[in-house]
């Protein structure tokens, strides 16, 4: 406790010896920051008293004008501390935004200056830090403090329209005050300082048609009933001025192009009250005979015009439509004109707008009326037939010169002369009657299409043509006949009353009521013993058996006459004959065989096909015969005839060998390689015996002495009593005995082929006579060749 009190007394003593003063800063003068000073108690009384001093900083903003144009640096302010006694012992430092580049400070006096001109629109304020330090020791005398230098705004930016020039539109005939658009100008100056950014709008050009609100920039119409047809485009110049529009303020302008949009405030008007048109009487129905037009000052859909014919004199003869491209009225012909009937037409046409605006009904009716007068021109026209086409009927075989009909053509201008160029018919040039020129045959030509041409006598160029169709009617002149040549058969197992064939008929005639045939036997009512005809009543009939038990051995073919009658007015009939064969059938009535002809005909084989099959069979037989002949002449070769057939180093030679010294007939290289010696090798040149075990040759792979190896081999062969001498021929054709299947070797099976007796082919019938004759020649052929021949014969 005592130590603590002593430390406090020592510190108070130190502070009493020095006085502390804070910074002072002023814009143009020193600003008091804080003041501190020790307060000492009276020394009388034998005791010292201390008063504690609390330091506090009070900072204000510095201001500097933008766009300073002076030659000297602009003075900003002054920093000062009470510790500075004016003895240059204190140094002031500056750091932060622009310190040293934009702002500088006098280290001794603390004066701050701006080195260059500043722009508030680029940077509105700068934040810096200041500190007082001892000039000798650089020891901070005061803590570092932060302050702000604000750039004071001046009116150096004019208002600007960022989106100009502008384009706007307003309907014509709009009332005063109709909103057009709003424009906005921006000012980069400080809106919180003075009137530098306070903008006022005004119109420099465009009055008295439009006005602008000075505060909001809203543009409105200023005159009523502005007509687009009088003036469509207006160019308005708007000014925006700052400083509240006062003198000395900066200003900016922009242009606004205002267009009056169209409204339907004008009715269509014809250029004249009467339109005269001339139309030839030969004009086609649906063709355009004239054009009229009502003009509308409006544009777009407001100028669309509808034309209508006022009911009256010409309303039934003409029609009118609107051309969408040029709004013309096209007058169309609805009915044919005839100068001789009526020479002129008069009617009224009304033109009106398709889209009306109810705001302008008080302007009057939005339509106009004009009179159209059409004069019909006389044209030398060709004759006109009374019908567009004619149809006539005539029976075939009608006598020549018979009138079958007539055509008529008329023209009020002059007479006419019809004519025809068809050779089957003739026409009267005056009366127009058509008559036959030849006998007609329906079976050859059932319908004649002719053209009749009418020509004016006084003007041959003018002609008219009409189509005439002549139908040739049928008469019953051909008797009916069977529809096809039937191939009828009856099974041997057929029963009584069984229908074995259904028949129909055909007729070249074509009666109007359709074909109707009846079938019967030639002697109706007389009982036949084999077959009869049964009429089904639907233009078909059936062949029915009257008995059973038909046999081919008794009678193979039956003939049945059939009487066929047609249903014409004059009945004609004919008799056809059916050929009925007796055939063998299976249980379900399917045909098996009738005869040789009956077999081939259903299959559909023609004579040419049968000849081709026989030629193929003959060619095959020739090939087989040649093959057998070549095989008979082939010689059998013995087993060991080839000099190249060498087995187990057996050398084929015809002279006596030279013994052991003969090294040319034996490959000595085999003796040098003991590895080629095979173990468990049986001798193949003698018959193996039971109990005789194979001998293994003793050979040392490590020995290179050939003489020792040969000696061992000689001793081995000398001890073998069953081995043949060295100079011998080894034959390997032996296969052993005792096999149940006997030998399968081709060596022992080369024997004469046994000839088989083929006389039994003669017993197979006449169809196998040719085959039996071929085999009767005892020519040896492979059995597969006989199978091929039998297959083709069947």
Give me a quick take on this structure.
With 794 residues, the protein is mainly beta. The chain has 7 helices and 40 strands.
Describe the protein in words.
There is one protein chain. The protein is 11% helix and 30% strand. With 794 residues, it is mainly β. The strands form eleven sheets. Strands 33, 35, 38, 39 and 40 form a five-stranded mixed β-sheet that branches. A four-stranded mixed β-sheet has the order 1-7-6-3, with no helix packed on it. It is flat. It starts with a helix and ends with a helix. The N terminus is likely disordered.
Q: What's the arrangement of secondary structure elements?
A:
Layout: H1 2-17, E1 62-65, E2 74-78, E3 90-96, E4 103-105, E5 111-114, E6 125-134, E7 145-152, E8 166-171, E9 179-182, E10 200-205, E11 210-212, E12 218-221, E13 233-241, E14 251-261, E15 269-270, E16 274-280, E17 288-295, E18 305-310, E19 318-322, E20 328-333, E21 344-353, E22 367-377, E23 384-385, E24 389-395, E25 403-406, E26 409-410, E27 416-420, E28 425-427, E29 433-436, E30 447-456, E31 463-473, E32 481-482, E33 488-491, E34 499-506, E35 518-520, E36 531-535, E37 540-545, E38 557-565, E39 573-585, E40 591-593, H2 596-603, H3 607-632, H4 668-672, H5 706-719, H6 769-776, H7 783-793
Parallel strand pairs: 1-7, 8-14, 16-22, 24-31, 33-39
Antiparallel strand pairs: 2-5, 3-6, 4-5, 6-7, 9-12, 10-13, 11-12, 13-14, 15-17, 17-20, 18-21, 19-20, 21-22, 23-26, 25-29, 27-30, 28-29, 30-31, 32-34, 34-37, 35-38, 36-37, 38-39, 39-40
């Amino acid at each position: 406790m005592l130590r603590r009190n002593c430390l406090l007394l020592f510190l108070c003593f130190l502070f009493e010896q020095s006085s502390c003063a804070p910074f002072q800063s002023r814009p143009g003068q020193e600003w008091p920051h804080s003041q501190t000073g020790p307060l000492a108690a009276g020394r009388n009384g034998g005791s010292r008293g201390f008063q504690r001093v609390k330091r506090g900083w009070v900072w204000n903003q510095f201001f500097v004008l933008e766009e300073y144009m002076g030659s000297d640096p602009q003075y900003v302010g002054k920093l000062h501390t009470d510790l500075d006694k004016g003895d240059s012992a204190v140094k002031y430092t500056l750091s932060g935004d622009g310190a040293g580049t934009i702002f500088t400070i006098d280290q001794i006096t603390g004066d701050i200056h701006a080195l260059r001109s500043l722009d508030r629109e680029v940077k509105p304020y700068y934040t810096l830090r200041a500190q007082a330090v001892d000039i000798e020791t650089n020891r901070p005398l005061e803590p570092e403090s932060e302050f702000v230098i604000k750039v004071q705004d001046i009116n150096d930016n004019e208002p600007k329209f960022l989106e100009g020039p502008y384009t706007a539109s307003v309907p014509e005939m709009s009332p005063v005050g109709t909103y057009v658009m709003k424009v906005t100008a921006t000012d980069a100056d400080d809106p919180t300082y003075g009137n530098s950014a306070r903008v006022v709008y005004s119109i420099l050009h465009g009055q008295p048609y439009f006005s602008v609100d000075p505060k909001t920039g809203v543009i409105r119409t200023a005159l009523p009933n502005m007509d687009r047809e009088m003036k469509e485009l207006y160019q308005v110049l708007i000014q925006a001025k700052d400083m509240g529009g006062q003198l000395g303020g900066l200003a900016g302008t922009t242009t606004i192009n205002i267009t009056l949009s169209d409204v339907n405030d004008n009715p269509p008007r014809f250029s004249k009250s009467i339109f005269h048109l001339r139309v030839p009487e030969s004009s086609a129905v649906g063709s355009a005979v004239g054009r009229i037009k009502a003009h509308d000052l409006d544009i777009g859909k407001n100028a669309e015009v509808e034309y209508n014919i006022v009911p009256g004199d010409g309303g039934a003869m003409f029609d009118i439509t609107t051309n969408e491209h040029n709004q013309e009225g096209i007058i169309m012909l609805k009915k044919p004109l005839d100068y001789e009937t009526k020479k002129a037409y008069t009617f009224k046409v009304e033109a009106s707008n398709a889209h009306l605006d109810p705001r302008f009904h008080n302007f009057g009716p939005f339509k106009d009326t004009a009179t159209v007068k059409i004069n019909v021109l006389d044209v030398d026209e060709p004759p006109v037939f009374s019908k567009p086409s004619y149809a006539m009927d005539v029976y075939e075989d009608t006598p020549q010169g018979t009138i079958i009909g007539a055509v008529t053509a008329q023209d009020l201008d002059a007479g006419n002369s019809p004519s025809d160029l068809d050779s089957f018919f003739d026409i009267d040039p005056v009366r127009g009657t058509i008559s036959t020129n030849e006998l007609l045959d329906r079976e050859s030509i059932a319908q004649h299409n002719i053209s009749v041409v009418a020509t004016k006598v006084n003007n041959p160029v003018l002609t008219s043509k009409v189509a005439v169709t002549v139908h040739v009617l049928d008469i019953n002149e051909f008797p009916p006949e069977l529809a096809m040549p039937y191939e009828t058969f009856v099974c041997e197992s057929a029963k009584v009353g069984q229908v074995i064939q259904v028949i129909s008929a055909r007729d070249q005639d074509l009666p109007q009521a359709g074909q109707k045939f009846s079938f019967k036997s030639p002697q109706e009512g007389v009982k036949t013993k084999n077959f009869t005809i049964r009429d089904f009543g639907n233009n078909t009939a059936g062949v029915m058996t009257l008995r059973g038990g038909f046999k081919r051995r008794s009678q193979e073919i039956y003939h049945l006459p059939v009487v066929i009658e047609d249903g014409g007015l004059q009945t004609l009939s004919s008799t056809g004959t059916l050929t009925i064969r007796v055939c063998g059938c299976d249980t379900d009535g399917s045909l098996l065989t009738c005869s040789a002809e009956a077999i081939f005909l259903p299959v559909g084989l023609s004579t040419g096909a049968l000849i081709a099959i026989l030629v193929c069979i003959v060619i095959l037989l020739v090939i087989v015969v040649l093959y057998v002949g070549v095989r008979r002449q082939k010689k059998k070769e013995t087993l060991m005839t080839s000099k190249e057939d060498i087995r187990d180093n057996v050398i084929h030679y015809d002279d006596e060998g030279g013994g052991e010294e003969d090294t040319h007939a034996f490959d000595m290289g085999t003796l040098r390689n003991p590895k080629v010696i095979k173990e468990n090798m049986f001798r193949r040149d003698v018959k193996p015996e039971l109990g005789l075990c194979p001998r293994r040759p003793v050979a040392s792979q490590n020995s290179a002495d050939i003489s020792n190896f040969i000696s061992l081999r000689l001793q081995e062969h000398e001890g073998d009593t069953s081995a043949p001498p060295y100079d011998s021929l080894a034959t390997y054709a032996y296969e052993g005995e005792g096999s149940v299947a006997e030998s399968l070797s081709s060596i022992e099976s080369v024997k004469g082929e046994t000839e088989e007796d083929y006389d039994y082919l003669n017993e197979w019938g006449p169809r196998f006579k040719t085959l039996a004759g071929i085999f009767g020649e005892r020519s040896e052929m492979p059995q597969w060749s006989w199978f091929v021949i039998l297959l083709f014969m069947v």
